[in-house]
Amino acid sequence: MYVLSGWEGSAHDSKVLSDALARKNGLKVPQGKYYLVDCGFPNRRKFLAPYRGVRYHLQDFAGHGNDPENEKELFNLRHASLRNVIERIFGIFKSRFTIFKSAPPFLFKTQAELVLTCAALHNFLRKECRSDEFPVEPTDESSSSSSVLPNYEDNDHEPIVQTQEQEREDANIWRTNIGSDMWKNANN
């Protein structure tokens, strides 16, 4: 779990992400992996956002007759389901460290350090204590070639520089391919 503490709660998420990526020992996205982001972020390489203006929240799909009607809705449903798993992990963290259930009576700097300390302890417990396991649904990491994000990071050569517009276009094509693959698999 990567943690960047010290930002005020009112800071915009994209500003915090930019800071995390720009730091010397900042957030690194492993090769071939990506992070889910909410619709407050643009869809871009390594940060997969849902479709805007398309049903997203799990309750939007609840009940009979509310199944996804197209690729974009199915993609958003599955994105929301994964995001729900992530939110449950935050719940586990708050349950383990009950001091975070309300605002602690410490200086802001101390609170930021407390978050880092508890995150480090949480990571240690997850790694070293077998009794600390909580159920995680198995994932199918196989994917068709059309839903793989183009790799612009060849370790033998200099990285290819893309404009933000090119990067977003590639990421949107990638997201569309993932949605198409999901739709095909769901309807076969």
TrEMBL record:
GO terms for cellular component: nucleus. It comes from the Eukaryota. Residues 134-171 are annotated as: Disordered. Its main location: nucleus. GO terms for molecular function: hydrolase activity; metal ion binding; nuclease activity. Keywords: Hydrolase, Metal-binding, Nuclease, Nucleus. Its cofactor is a divalent metal cation. Pfam families: DDE_Tnp_4. It is found in: Nucleus. InterPro entries: HARBI1-like, HARBI1_dom. Residues 2-123 form the DDE Tnp4 domain. Belongs to the HARBI1 family. This is DDE Tnp4 domain-containing protein. The lineage of its organism: Eukaryota, Viridiplantae, Streptophyta, Embryophyta, Tracheophyta.
